[in-house]
């Protein structure tokens, strides 16, 4: 699992980030269900004030969050192993549970009013349940707790075992697109990374026999996609370009999942637009996860979005302003969209906006 900086692509430009209340009200009226409204409201507040409690509220209301709460509810005394982002998020998600405190290598002090015990000072008591919140070395931690601290195996819960599927439906949320047929048979995967989302689209819309345009400018990611797409023949067209608001060349920082445009990047890649690539073809679905350049990509696809009204699944977490600027941009182009939101990680990132024409 990669732990990422909050708002990694944010410029801090206050004028760029500005909005008015009428914009927010307009977005809110276009949101199609209460679950999405809650994500939007909490994501907006997180962007404005930076309090991680709002992310906790989002995660707690996911299907995974509700399962975790049900599992922990009623336990007499819960001690969290790890006082980092995940551990503190649990407190913010479920403030009414019977938390005892934290166990952490750094030890000592308090967090949200709960004591932080060092490994040496921690003493297990039979009423305790230990919740391992860390993202790494869970097996070693479990072994240490059992063998060195005399914690019974059945009293240890490893969080990772309960959240590993939270990412499964990203970009293809069943509650919003389960019964939708792609009348236009083209799927665009903008920022296809390792190609898995393109393949997921092929399998998800297998009855529609779709064609995929997959764009990925990163050298290593592109090679992974070449290998992965071999079995799909001409069903997938892999394009080694970035996507933006105009055709140009741009410096690019290579780096796997976090590859992005950067003035300090050593690579130089070709940028194209949705409208130029698609031309007069009809597009049914566009997925965007392009490290803060989603708004630029939308600006380069105005004619396609107007003409085809494709399903849009767009990441809205790279910049503080994404949560309002991207919905406004989409609605400005095509006001017939209804908006929905989903969240797919046990952290601040991977919030997705779905725009579906009604």
DSSP strand count: 17
Q: Which residues form runs of ≥5 with pLDDT under 50?
A: 1-5
Strands across the major sheet, in which order?
A: 9-8-7-14-15-17-16
Helix count, per DSSP? 14
Global structural class: alpha/beta
Distance, first to last CA: 37 Å
Strand percentage lies at: 15-25%
Roughly what percent helix? 25-40%
Return Rg in Å. 22 Å
Mean pLDDT across every amino acid position: 92
For the biggest sheet, the summary is:
7 strands, mixed
Which term fits the overall shape? globular
Account of the 3D structure:
- There is one protein chain.
- The chain has 358 residues and is an alpha/beta fold.
- It has 14 helices and 17 strands.
- The strands form three sheets. Strands 9-8-7-14-15-17-16 form a seven-stranded mixed beta sheet, with helices on both faces. A six-stranded mixed beta sheet has the order 3-4-2-1-5-6, with helices on both faces.
- A hairpin with a 6-residue loop joins strand 11 (248-253) and strand 12 (260-261).
- Helix 2 runs antiparallel to helix 3 and helix 3 crosses helix 5.
- It is globular, with a radius of gyration of 22 Å.
- Residues 1-5 have low confidence and may be disordered.
Task: Please render the helix and strand layout as text.
Blueprint: H1 21-29, H2 34-49, H3 53-60, H4 63-72, E1 77-81, H5 85-93, E2 99-103, E3 110-111, E4 114-117, E5 128-132, H6 138-147, E6 156-158, H7 160-163, H8 174-177, E7 186-190, H9 196-204, E8 211-215, H10 219-229, E9 236-239, E10 242-243, E11 248-253, E12 260-261, E13 267-272, H11 274-278, E14 285-288, H12 294-299, H13 302-308, E15 311-315, H14 322-333, E16 337-343, E17 351-357
Parallel strand pairs: 1-2, 1-5, 2-4, 5-6, 7-8, 7-14, 8-9, 10-13, 14-15
Antiparallel strand pairs: 3-4, 11-12, 11-13, 15-17, 16-17
Helix pairs in contact: 1-14, 2-3, 3-5
């Amino acid at each position: 699992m990669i732990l990422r900086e909050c708002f990694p692509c944010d410029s801090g430009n206050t004028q760029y980030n500005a909005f008015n209340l009428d914009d927010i009200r307009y977005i809110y009226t276009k949101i199609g269900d209460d679950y999405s409204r809650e994500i939007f409201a909490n994501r907006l507040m997180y962007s404005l004030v930076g309090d991680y409690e709002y992310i906790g509220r989002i995660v707690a209301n996911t299907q995974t969050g509700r399962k975790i709460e049900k599992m922990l509810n009623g336990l007499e005394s819960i001690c969290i192993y790890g006082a980092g982002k995940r551990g503190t998020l649990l407190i913010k998600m479920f403030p009414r549970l019977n938390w005892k405190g934290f166990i952490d290598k750094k030890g000592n002090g308090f967090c949200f009013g709960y004591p932080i015990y060092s490994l040496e000072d921690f003493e297990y008591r039979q009423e305790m349940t230990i919740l391992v919140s860390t993202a790494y070395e869970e097996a070693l931690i479990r072994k240490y707790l059992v063998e060195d601290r005399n914690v019974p195996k059945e009293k240890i819960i490893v969080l990772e075992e309960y959240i590993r599927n939270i990412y499964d439906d990203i970009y293809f949320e069943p509650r919003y697109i389960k019964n939708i047929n792609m009348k236009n048979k083209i799927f665009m995967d903008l920022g296809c990374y390792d190609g898995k989302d393109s393949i997921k689209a092929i399998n998800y819309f297998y009855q529609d026999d779709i064609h995929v345009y997959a764009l990925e400018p990163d050298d290593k990611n592109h090679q992974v996609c070449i290998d992965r797409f071999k079995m799909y023949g001409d069903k997938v067209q892999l394009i080694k370009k970035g996507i933006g608001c105009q055709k140009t060349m741009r410096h690019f920082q290579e780096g796997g999942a976090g590859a992005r445009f950067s003035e300090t990047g050593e690579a130089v890649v070709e940028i194209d637009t949705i409208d130029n690539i698609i031309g007069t073809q009809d597009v049914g679905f566009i997925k965007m996860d392009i490290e803060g350049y989603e708004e630029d990509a939308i600006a380069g696809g105005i004619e396609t979005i107007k003409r085809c009204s494709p399903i849009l699944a767009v990441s809205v977490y790279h910049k503080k302003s994404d949560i309002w600027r991207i919905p406004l941009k989409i609605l400005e182009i095509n006001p017939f969209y209804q908006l929905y939101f989903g969240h797919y990680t046990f952290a601040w990132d991977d919030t997705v906006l779905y725009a579906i024409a009604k």
